[in-house]
Structure formats: C-alpha cells, structure tokens
DNA sequence: AATCCAGACAACCGCATCCTG
DNA sequence: ACAGGATGCGGTTGTCTGGAT
C-alpha cells in the first residue's frame, strides 16, 4: 500500500498559475493567513489546486519582499561559498539572502552560476574523472559517478575547489595578469606589493566585513523572513558538511576558523573558504572566464606530465592529506601512488 | 517565415522530517 | 512510543522565449 495522495489528482489543476488564481490566493492569505493547513486552503478559497502547489506559489512568488533575478556579485559570492561548504542545501543558502527563495537560487545556480564558475570544464572533468573513477557519459560531457560513488554535486564542489586552488599556481591562467586585469590592478596598487588574500578580498568587496583569512561571516538569523522555517542554527550545527567535520577536515576548516557552537544563540559564524575568497570573488566578477578557453584544472595525469613539484601543486586535497600524514614528502612518492591515496581519501568521506 | 535549439524559470514529484493526537 | 497526516526540501521535468539557422 502506498502513501495516500495529498489531494485528488484528477480534480486538481496543474501548470502555470493565472493572475486570477494568484489574486485569490494572495488576498486570502493576506487577510487570514494560511490557517496552518495548506491542504485545506485551496478548498476554502475555491481554488482547484493542490495544497502543496499553493504553498509553493505563495512562498516563491506571492509572498511580500520577494526578489527575482538580478543577483549581485555579493549574492553570487555567498551562494558559491556556501555551495562549496555545504552543497545543495538550498534552503540554508536562501536563508542568508533576504528576499531570495531556495527555488530561485537553485535555478540560478543550475542555469547560470555553475556554468560561469566551472566554465568549459569538459577537459578538466575528463581529466579529473580518471582520478575519481568517473566516466563521461557517451556522447555528452556529463560525468557519472561510478565506483567512487561521488554525487554530481560533490564532483562540482571538488571541481570548483580545484579551479580555485589552481589560482594559487603561478603558472595558472588565473595568475596571468592579461587574463585578470582587474585583480592584477588591485594587487599592483597595494602597498609594498602585499598580495594578502584578505586585503585583496576587501579591495574587491568593499562591503565585506573584516574577517580573518578564508572566512566568510554568515549570520544564521540574517534573514528572519526566510522562506524556510526549518532553516535554523541547529541545521548548521548539525550539518557537519556531508561528513566533513572541523576536526576531520582542515581542508574545509582551517585551524583559525570560527565554528558554529551548539550553545551559540545568535550572532555570526564563519563559513570557511580555505583562504580563497579573493579568487572566488574574482571568478565571479571577471567576465574573462566566459571569453577564454578554460584553464585545465590540474588532475593527477596532467601533474604527472608536467612533473610539478609539490610546492606549486594546486591540488586542493593536499592540505588534508598532509594533516593526516606524518610525511610531507610529496616528491618522494610516485604520482600513481598518490593517486591511489587520493582515491582512498575520497572514499573516506561521504561526499 | 518556419523550424530548431538552448537557456531560463516555474512547477511538480517523491521522500524525509516534523508535528500532533 | 507510535501512527498518520502535514510540511519542507531538493531533484527533476515541463513550458516558454528568444536567438540561430
């Protein structure tokens, strides 16, 4: 026996809402509220709609102070930061952006932001797929997790990490002044050639709150009108980032990162950014990414080809690997061996 | 002008969690 | 403590629109 349907599917209208339906729903809720029962609401006001559909329509479009489109760079930055840190928890991400809905952010990410940040990633994904046991689906660039069990979301997050970390590689496209004139200009104007990430970040984001390196300050109660009633401090406290806790993953949580505390009543806490705020901001704000051939993110095979020594190795997992290992001798081990370690490393997390 | 195609966005669906009796 | 209904969430699909051919 299956679940009882929430409404009579046969007598329920589907598809786009008409202005009349919107007006009915809006005026009723504004006068009487939802009455705490979405299922009963459509019958009360004579709408041939499912209660869930009414709820969605209200939350996403009819509610006051909803913003559509026109995402700012600051919003892009917050979305990306949180996506890297917590993945596709759209309701939590939406809670940090007043007037934005989880659906809007989800759509925005899937249709625009992801492409903007990951760019033409076919090459790098294909390269990366070798290390993570991922295979491009035939005839497409889509990558299907195989034995590694990586989700698409996890893969995207790693890919974004690699892309950002590669910006620290002096040979990287991201460090090419001709590719990133905006960033370069800022760096050059800084006193004494100080390339400190925090300074760069503040130059790129004048309104960003002062914070230690690699932290994005997020206030969990920033958006009291947030759509998702379930979005609470508790969610952050309990969400150990898909199994990556502060103690187990310095990759995500640097030692100086301020973590949410279970006793914390409000205020703010940090979403760790692995010291990559400026690079992320530059990715977001620089249109060059759309116009250039994407720099390959260096996977193991390309590193092998290049024979890169450890000190310029952009691979993001090294931090975590080193933290768990007494040996820091990158150059003494073969790349193949390290690739194996990398796969083990991946298997250790529920990504 | 017609058709195709891809991007953007709205809406739906199924599952997990919460709430209440 | 438990069951069943309500709600929330995230993935997916459907629809519309504008540009390219």
Automatic annotation (TrEMBL):
Give start and end of each HTH myb-type domain: 9-66, 67-117
Output the Gene Ontology cellular-component terms: nucleus
What this protein is called in its record is: Uncharacterized protein
SUPFAM superfamilies attached here? Homeodomain-like (SSF46689)
Q: Which CDD domains match?
A: SANT
Q: Which UniProt keywords apply?
A: DNA-binding, Nucleus, Repeat, Transcription, Transcription regulation
Q: Which GO terms describe its molecular function?
A: DNA binding
């Amino acid at each position: 026996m299956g679940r009882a349907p929430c409404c009579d599917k046969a007598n329920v209208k589907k598809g786009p809402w008409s202005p009349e339906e919107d007006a009915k729903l809006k005026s009723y809720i504004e006068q009487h509220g939802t009455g705490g029962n979405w299922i009963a609401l459509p019958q009360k006001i004579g709408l041939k709609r499912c209660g869930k559909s009414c709820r969605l329509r209200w939350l996403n479009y009819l509610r006051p102070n909803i913003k559509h489109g026109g995402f700012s760079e600051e919003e892009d930055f917050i979305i990306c930061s949180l996506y890297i840190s917590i993945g596709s928890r759209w309701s939590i991400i939406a809670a940090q952006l007043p007037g934005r809905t989880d659906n809007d952010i989800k759509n925005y990410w899937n249709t625009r932001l992801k492409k903007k940040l990951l760019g033409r990633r076919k090459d790098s994904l294909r390269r990366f797929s070798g290390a993570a046991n991922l295979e491009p689906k035939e005839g497409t660039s889509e990558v299907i997790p195989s034995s590694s069990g990586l989700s698409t979301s996890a893969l995207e997050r790693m890919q974004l990490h690699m892309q950002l970390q590669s910006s620290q590689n002096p040979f990287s496209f991201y460090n090419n002044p001709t590719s990133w004139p905006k960033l370069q200009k800022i760096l050059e104007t800084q006193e004494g050639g100080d390339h400190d990430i925090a300074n760069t970040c503040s130059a790129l984001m004048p309104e960003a709150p002062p914070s230690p390196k690699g932290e994005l300050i997020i206030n969990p109660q920033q958006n009291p009108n947030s759509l998702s009633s379930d979005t609470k401090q508790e969610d952050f406290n309990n969400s150990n980032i898909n199994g990556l806790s502060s103690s187990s993953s310095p990759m995500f949580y640097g030692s100086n990162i301020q973590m949410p505390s279970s006793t914390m009543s409000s205020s703010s806490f940090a979403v760790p950014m692995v010291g990559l705020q400026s690079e992320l901001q530059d990715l977001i704000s620089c249109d060059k990414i759309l116009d250039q051939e994407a720099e390959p993110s260096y996977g193991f095979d390309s590193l092998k080809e290049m024979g890169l020594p450890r000190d310029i190795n952009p691979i993001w997992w090294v931090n975590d690997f080193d933290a768990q290992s007494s040996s820091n001798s990158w150059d003494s081990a073969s790349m193949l061996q390290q690739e194996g370690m990398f796969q083990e490393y991946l298997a250790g997390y529920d990504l």
